[in-house]
Write a structure and sequence with these properties.
By secondary structure, chain A is an alpha/beta fold. Chain A contains 16 helices and 20 strands. Chain B is globular, with a radius of gyration of 18 Å. In chain B, α1 runs parallel beside α7 (about 135-160), α7 (about 135-160) packs antiparallel against α8 and α7 runs parallel beside α10. The N and C termini of chain B lie far apart (about 50 Å). The chains are: A alpha/beta, B mainly alpha.
Amino acid sequence: MWLDQADGFDEIFKGYLPYYLLVMFPILIIMSPVNPVAASHEFSVYRMQQYDLHTVPHGCRSSSFNLEGRSLTLWSTSRHCVVARIQDITIEQFIDIRNKAGALLLVLPKNDTLLTDDEREHIYLLEAVMAQQEVNLPVYFAEWSSDFEYIIKDLQHSFITDEKSGTALEAMFNTVSSNGYQIVVSTPAIQKLDSKPTVLHGKLTGRAASAQTIVVAAHYDASSVVPELSFGADSNASGVVALLELARVFSRLYGSAAVRGGPSILFLLVSTGHSLNYFTTKKWLEEHLDTADSSILQDVSFVMCLDSISSGPLKMHVSKPPKPGTVSHSMKSRLSVPFVHKKINLADELLAWHHERFSIRRMTAFTLSSLESHKEPRRSSLLDSYTEPSLESLVDNIKTTARALASHIYNITEETSEEDSAMFDEALNVDEASVRSWYKYLTSQTRAPQFLTTATQNGGVTGALERAMTRYMEVTSSVHVVDKREPEYTLYGPTKAVLYVYSVKPAVFDLILTLAIVAYLALVYFAIQIFPRFYTEYAKLVTGKEKVY
Amino acid sequence: MTLYHFGNCLALVYAPYHMAYKFSGISEYATFSKCVYAGGLYIFTQLCKMLLLATFFPDYDNTHASGEYDVFLEILKATVDLADLLGLYFAINAVPGKGHAKILTAAIGWACAEVIITRSVLLWVGARGSEFDWKYVRSCAESNVALLQHASTAALVWLWTRSDLPKKHFPIVITLLALSPYRNLLEDAIGSMLGLSTWALLAVRAMHASAVGLTALAMYAVLAQQIGM
């Protein structure tokens, strides 16, 4: 039988097996996949914002890394990836990391709404610092999960370096017991996104023959340090919702000839806001002012921009303090809001408010906003999300605005009788359910320019807004492109990635393991060696007889 | 982790088997071919068991997905492992020579085949990856315990085949043999009842295997004494 030949095989193996192995092992290693095991932890993470504005780079410039994870206090070189909670990292630490570390992974708070005011303020500030300058190391943000909590805790307590421990034995124990984490993100190379910003505009035509035009404008993008997490509730979902609600109210009034107002109202939704310097507004204005065949902007009475109107009473932001008797002054008194005056500074990298784009083109323009100043960091924060109080404030502000606009259009100087006032209220009734649903919808969508301007024409938020406006008026959507040679802005992808965390042990650990295994094998060897003697004794014990074979 | 770590694990698996083969004296009988034969029998037995499980048992992947642990089904499945005893019986019969040589040759061949089939791929894929996990080291240590387990089971099977086994030992042998397919189930049950960690469970397995082994050894000693082997 062939099995009898196996002893021959035995001989062959004895002689040549080691040499076979020498050949076989490298072949097997080459043949097997590079990374044969899935990591025990896999997270989806969001990359920090990256864009160029007038070819000035902003944000995070790299994407892939494969580094050892360290906590905020224990990292030391550019071979470490710092893992921290966003609340824990201070500005100084961030600047230090930006200059010296290899990568940064920030874990977002578990629940935004439970943050204290101090923590919020801190995150706003951190975001501002991060956005200020370009960052050369990869920076990622991860949503909170219990696994991350565990990893962060583990990193804080582990001393893989033996510098901190007293004796060699202690160091050895630390090595065996502590876990290291290798953090790996591999993404496709950074690429420019093909950005095609859109403008939606629709007009309610007024009664008068030589109709003046009132422009109501809002930008519907959101910006934050993380494009994937830009939900921008206050800035500027609130403005968009208000614009849609105004469109609904006035389309009803303009629908019947009896109550149609004198001036036309032009509603304008633009897809790039303050983070990209109101680029689309600029392009759109150029298109309609500088070409002769467009008559949309021929006789503009005033431009009212809505921006961040859900966090309290409104303010009117202007570039030039209006004199009494002008339309803006009349609107101010009808709105009964204070002025905030800020001159246009063309030397600044970014324009302060949306209305400045119109003011530059010599139109009367102002912005309504709840914010005191354009520098408020929550205009571009990832914490800007849906809350109930902000919704109430938004509804109030829409009511105020609608009333003021209506009283301007119908030129009502004083609401004399109770009856008139009641009629007025009924006509301008703000539909809270619709405001709520739109506000919820917009704040649940990622509205960073990276997504808005690269989506298909009829898809996403742009498509939804266009369909909503079509219900009230005829909507024209126009797509603009950035200059090929000298782009006003450039957006970069990818915006998200998959992060793998491998738990690893230092190389010394394997040496210690070898020692332990050798000790164990020696034990087994001696156990086998003394087995005959043990058997003799044991048999004597069991059988009670001396003589055993 | 690294190739080095893989080497560590391999040493932990391979060396005890090698030592058991070399230093127990059975290599002098030139029984390498019998070891291979026992290994072949192991593979054949597993195939038969798989065929049996696939034919007569419900699709248990689905019941597992629902998260329920069906004790009865598990016991039934473990019962199929009685086929292992039959396989071991044939392996022992195929080996010529004295009792201890028969037992050790069959056990080592059997356990080797099991290690190669059930653990080599896991080790090759897992221990070499960049992720470190104690489970690879533990699985290697477990294979050492498995050798002990198979040796004691083989001894029991051999004792059972002997017609000159003392009458009072017969019930013990039968009980231990009948229980041997369920040993994993029993150990897991104890582990989950006491809430043991995986390492403690390994210790339980080792203790169980040694206890069974010592009992078998005692009966072997008595029998050897009796027949003057």
